[in-house]
Every structure is written in structure tokens, then in C-alpha cells.
Amino acid sequence: MLAAVACGGAPQRSGDVALYLDESQPLEKRVADALARMTLEEKVALLHAQSKFSSAGVPRLGIPEVWCTDGPHGIRPEVLWDEWDQAGWTNDSCTAFPALTCLAATWNPEMSALYGRSIGEEARYRGKDVLLGPGVNIYRTPLNGRNFEYMGEDPYLSSRMVVPYVQGVQQNGVAACVKHFAVNNQEVQRHKVDVVLDDRALNEIYLPAFRAAVQQGGAWAIMGAYNKYKGEHCCHNRYLLNDILKRNWGFDGVVISDWGGVHDTREAIFNGLDMEFGTWTDGLNWGATNAYDNYYLARPYLELLRKGEVGTEELDDKASRVLRLIFRTSMNSRKPFGSLCSPEHNAAARRIAGEGMVLLRNEGGVLPVDLSKVKTIAVVGENAVKMMTVGGGSSSLKVKHECTPLEGIRAAVGDRAGVIYERGYVGDVTGDYNGVVTGQDLSEKRSARALIDDAVAAARRADAVIFIGGLNKSDHQDSEGADRLQLGLPYGQDEVIEALAAANSNLAVVLVSGNAVAMPWVERVPAVLQAWYSGSEAGNALADVVFGAVNPSGKLPFTFPARLEDCGAHAAGEYPGDGERVVYRDGIFVGYRWAEKENIKPLFAFGHGLSYTTFAYGGVESDRTSLTASGKLRVRVDVTNTGSREGAEAVQLYIGDEESSLPRPVKELKGFEKVRLAPGETRTVTFDITPDMLGYYDDAKGAWVVEPGEFTAYVGAASDDIRGRVVFTLK
Ligand code: BGC
Fold first, then answer.
1. Which of 102, 467, 608, 637 could form a disulfide with 356 if both were Cys (CB 3.0 to 4.6 A apart)?
2. Do 536 and 646 fall within a single domain?
3. 596-623 pLDDT, tens per residue?
4. CB within 6 Å of ligand 1 — which residues?
């Protein structure tokens, strides 16, 4: 039975039900009621961690703690209360879902919804209230070690993909904590670098996905970034948090600090932070029993309040936000129970992984490998056998199972062909993160030369060769805390690939990575497949694509440049800055926007991705030639599957502004739709263009501006594969 509460105090035994406990009451009334009963100390206690991943509730009022978990690809295993070491639980293994780059590459919001719902169920089952993810920082440079946790280079694509993820998670009574707000686009000097960019780039490129997550997705939490912006750390940044997020966007959730991202009590009080986690104040966080009392938003805040040096307005706002979070999550008695490692989650991981893989190149139909025609398949490369769910930083997982590519290939082939494996090169033989160990023995005694010779010998014996390499989750690869050092493949893989290409022309290169890599050998390799980090079902999903059970339909969510200098961040920018500041001189020209402005041909363009079937586009037509301020213009195109197998195509709409007061990209993604077509089938794809899609952010005015004039709508299969266009005028 629910207890009643004496005004201003703890629940009493009587017939009345406390308003804040009554879920039929409006949320804001409950928040106000709970707040009115709390002491100053109780309010402050809500605002900072009490352990590595939890914060206190209000025990006296029966208000529970808040439990957070990483994020964003699966539910992180339990660590000790106040240590990063494993707690040693045996029931905290999860399903690893594909990395967010893979999800973005599906270009399918339905996959985002499935992902969000599934990972939310796992979080819920594990008793978590806040999932620390998804990440939507823009892919500005292929060197950023954390790109694999994000959704690519385009603000429109990431906005469309983040919304269903957030909604899916939150259906479970678990808050999505969208991170890292904002302009956290490199790991070099991530705790102190001050990012300098113009308001236009901020608003057009770096903020839209966060805004969509808040305003369309209804995100209940946002994580501040480590870096600075306008000289203030993003976890307590007046401009980003107070002005943009809370005032302009109307965000009513909590701002959670990144772990150790808080640096100052007064800034934390006044500049929009609500909850402080992971602070790394010297000596305080190491075994001291009162470490958490010393957090910036703990005793130091309480002392300022008690001395009357700061008022309670900010305190009440922060505590209200945390109460709102608690009512939405841990105190929501109607939320579902969730599930962990269910067959459905496994199937979801496999489906998303298969749909996100991108067939970059396929000359002569090398893929899919036809098992009725090959007797021996040589699989070469460390990433064929290396578990990838362990490592990479805070997104590292402890999985119930992980199917490696070689296992997936062997399972799919069965006894229909022989599969021989050769290592080819040695990359990273370690396999642990914070006490989670893969248990794999990847030690190797052969020299680099012998490994190549053995791989070449295997390739000569085989009818088909599949090289599986790329990056991994160790430092300076795809990993948190450091950036990559080069665009090229590490560990001498280029040499291995060249040798394999010379030995056997029936070669497919599969890249497991969260980033673009250089491919000096690309003309000598007939097939290249981008397979990403694809989670628990990585191997099965890869085999689905390699042998054709799944027809690839992924498209690149970021540009693969031929050279590092071809990216705006490296040509015009000052990556990684001077240690104190990094200036984004590339402005709005990120990714394909840069390549198209500079007329640079990328290795593989944004939006590119092939299929085992072919699609023909009919003429692109519009229902009118001009658009009024309140009007709508409809563009349509017929897309036909002209091949002999079913397939899906992400049809893309880009818009270019032909006359504008400010420089604009040649064209920008403004719509996409994925259509699944049987052989011979035709479907009409339509896009509605409205004036709000045509604007740019004018920094001088501090506002979005839509200028009349001529625009071009481009429809195509990739940013560099436009199949038709229509010109229209905005009146
Ligand atoms: C990362 C966050 C993560 C947090 C908690 C930080 O180092 O930047 O993304 O959620 O740790 O593990």
C-alpha cells in the first residue's frame, strides 16, 4: 500500500496517498510536490554520483536511486561500486548490437527503432534507468577514434536515425542520454581543447541531430562533452546548455556530465549542468570514503547554499529535472520488464548488421561467393578471428556470445566447401578491457614475411579469397581517448592485400572498422565490403552478405577520402589544434560538402553502396516548378529492380541552392527512403519539399533564413551518383 506523506516530510501511515507517488497525477504536479518535501541536503544529494554509475535518490521519501549504464552498443557489465574493476557478476552479459556507424549505414529508421527498442529492453532488464547513448557527434575527420560510436557526417541522416533510437529506448522506461553535447569531434586533448567554429557550422552541421533527439525524439537526458566551446567546458556551458538546449529547444530533461567532465562549482551551478558523474578530483576519487561528497555539485555547492552565497533557484530547477527523470524511469510502475540476450535481440543484431554492411566495390560479381562453384575458400586476416566487442573504451562490452567472421563463414559453408584460414598479419593480440577478457589466444610466432607467404600459398590453393582486416578497438585505432595516427591500414595490411591480389584475382576485402581507411590497392581488388563492428552476430551477418542470403543495401554514412588532405578538417582546418584550441576552418564544409566544393573525387562517396541487384531510376519529376512560403512541392521518381534478385535501395534526395547571399554546399541531403523491390518490381518514391528544408543559418542575424530563388532537387543512389534533377523556384 502506498504511504501518505505529512506536508513537507516523510511518508506517514494514513489513508492519503502522497501526490508525488500518484502516477495518475500530472508529472509537473508530482515534481513540485516531491520537491516541496525535500530538504536542502536531499536536493543536493540528487545532483551528483554516489558510485561509478549511480546517484542517490531520496531514501526518506522512497524515491529511488538513478542507475546509468554505457551505451551505446550494448549494456556495459557491472563494475564495483567505486572502482572501474569488474564486479564479477555472472548475469551481466549482454547482446552486442552493431556499432552506430553500421546502424547509420542502414539508412533505415526502422532499424533504428528496432535497435533502440532492443537495447532499451536489455537496459531495463538489467535495472538501468539511463542508457549513456546514442552518440551523434559529427564525423569531421576519419582520425577521430570514437567515430564508430556516432552516426556519420551528415546532420540530416543522423537526425533521422537518432529519433527512433531514442524513442525505442524510452518506451522501456529507460532514458536515452544523447552524447556528447557538443562539438566533440576528436579525442586528442579532449578534456581541454577549446573548439572554435562559426555559429553557422554549429547550427547547420553539429547541432541538428541533438536538436532532433530532443525535439522529435523527446530525449530525457543529454550528456555534456569533455571539450570546451567558447572557452567553457561543455558540461557547464552557458551558451550550449542554458541558451540553446534549455531555452531555445525547451529541453525539460537532465544534463548529465561526461565522466569527469566537471571542473568548477559555480559554472556547474549557473551554466546548466544537472548531474555530475565520474569527477576525477585529485586523490578524492581513489578509495576515499567521502570522494563523492567532494564533487563540485556536492558539499562545495551545499556550503555555498548554506552561506547564502548562491540562491536556490538553480538548485530547485536541477532537482526538479532529476525528479522528472526518476518519475519517467525508475518510478514508472507501468514500464515493461525488458529482456536480456533474447533470441529476438540476437536476430535484431544480425538483421541490423546485415542491413548496414556496405558493398563498396564488386567488379565481375566476385560477391556473393557462389558455394556451388567453389571448392576451397581461403579466409585471411586477423579480424576474421578477433573478438571486437571488447575494447574501444567505455562502449566495451561483456557479451553472452560473439560470432567471429571465420565462425560465421564456417557455419554458413558447412561441408559444401573447404575453408582454410591464414592470419596474414599480426595486429593487436590483447583482448581485455577493465577486467573483461576475451580469452582468445592470438599469439603468433611466425615473422611478418612468413605470414604473408603462408597467406599467399593458401590463396593460390583456393578458388575464392576473403581478406578480413581493417582496424580494431585498441589505442590509436577505433578507440576512445586517442585518435588514429594515419588514414592507412595498420600492421602492414596493404602489403598482405597486394600479395593476395597478385596470387588470386577472386579476392574480396572485408573491412571491419568504424572509420574510413586508405585503399592504395583498390584497383587491384575486385570486391570491397565495409562490414563495421557488427556485434554479437558479426560473423553470421557477414556470412549472410558474403554468400548472398542477404543482399547488401547499406550506404556510406560518411565519405571515404582517398587522402587525408582531401578532408576539410585536414586541408583547411587545424586538426588537432595546438593543444589549447582547434579552429574548424572548414566551417559547414564537412564530408561530401567539402569534397564537392573543392571538386575532389573521394575514394567512395557519401551515400555510396552497391547491391547484388541493379536499380534503374526513371525520370525525376516535380508537381510544380515553384514553391510558395507556405507551399509544398512533390518530387517523384520510379525506381525499378532490374536485376534477378530482391534488393533494397536507399533513394536519396539532395537539394542545392543556386542563388544565395552566403556560400552554400553544392547540395545537401534533405530526404531518403529505402525501398525493397522484388525483381522487376517498380515503386514510386516521393519526397515533399517544404521551404523550411531550404534555409541556412545566418550568423549575422542569429537565425535560420530561407531566401527566395532557384534551387535544384537531385535524386540519386549516392551523393556522386545522381540519376535525375528538377529545378524549382522559391517565391
Ligand atoms: C565517455 C562517455 C561514457 C562515460 C561513462 C566517458 O569516458 O566519454 O561516453 O558514457 O565515460 O563510461
1. 102
2. no
3. 999 999 999 999 999 999 999 999 999 9
4. 70-71, 132, 179, 258-259, 394
